[in-house]
Specification:
The protein has 161 residues and is an alpha+beta fold. It has a single domain, classed as HIT family, subunit A. It contains 4 helices and 5 strands; from the N terminus they run H-E-E-E-H-E-E-H-H. Bound molecules: 2'-deoxyguanosine-5'-monophosphate (DGP). The site of 2'-deoxyguanosine-5'-monophosphate has 15 residues, from strand 2. The site of 2'-deoxyguanosine-5'-monophosphate (DGP) has 15 residues, from strand 2.
């Protein structure tokens, strides 16, 4: 873990987080500055900046978890007809938090302008105000309720560092 990484601080329990899913390798939680309602981040517990530093099994695990989150978002009460899955992989790709994170961004089918605005503004380093924790907690509860019972994973306890 890195002492200068806010996601590591979240994993250590030193910063608040609104969790959607957790296992021994990964965490899925609500983005505090959601680009659209229901925006979730999926991270490995190991600190790495780039997906290129992850094992193939870990990369696969993160994407399977991202897919499970997407299924749950689609089943939840969110307006969600599709998702953007994306990773800003390194500072020169507009990565702001130097810890691998997969964005799972619900799209309503009628939100092009709002989504475009949020992409452009954050790529200009403007994130706006943090979402209200109570609202994040309500959305997280809804997504959690719809998470698949089992996440397909190639990782086992033997893969623990
Ligand atoms: P990126 O620009 O790809 O590095 O995305 C970083 C994301 O992290 C961005 O969508 C906002 C989010 N974020 C920043 N600080 C916090 C925090 O303290 N808690 C949570 N939950 N999300 C955060």
């Amino acid at each position: 873990m890195s002492s200068e990484c806010i996601f590591c601080e979240i994993l250590r329990g030193n910063l608040p987080v609104t969790t959607v899913y957790e296992d021994e390798f990964s965490l899925a939680f609500m983005d505090l500055y959601p680009m659209r309602p229901g925006h979730v981040l999926v991270i490995p517990k190991e600190h790495h900046v780039s997906i290129l530093q992850l094992s193939p099994k870990m990369r696969s695990h993160l994407f399977e978890l991202g897919a499970a989150v997407a299924l749950a978002q689609a089943e939840s009460g969110l307006k969600c007809k599709a998702q953007n899955f994306f990773i800003n992989d390194g500072p020169d790709a507009n990565q702001h938090v130097p810890h691998v994170h997969l964005h799972v961004l619900p799209r309503s089918g009628a939100d092009l302008h709002k989504a475009l605005f949020s992409f452009v503004s954050r790529y200009n380093n403007f994130f706006g105000v943090a979402a209200k924790r109570r609202r994040l907690a309500l959305i997280a509860k809804d997504i959690k309720t719809h998470m698949p019972r089992q996440i397909t994973s190639v990782l086992t306890s033997a893969d623990r560092a």
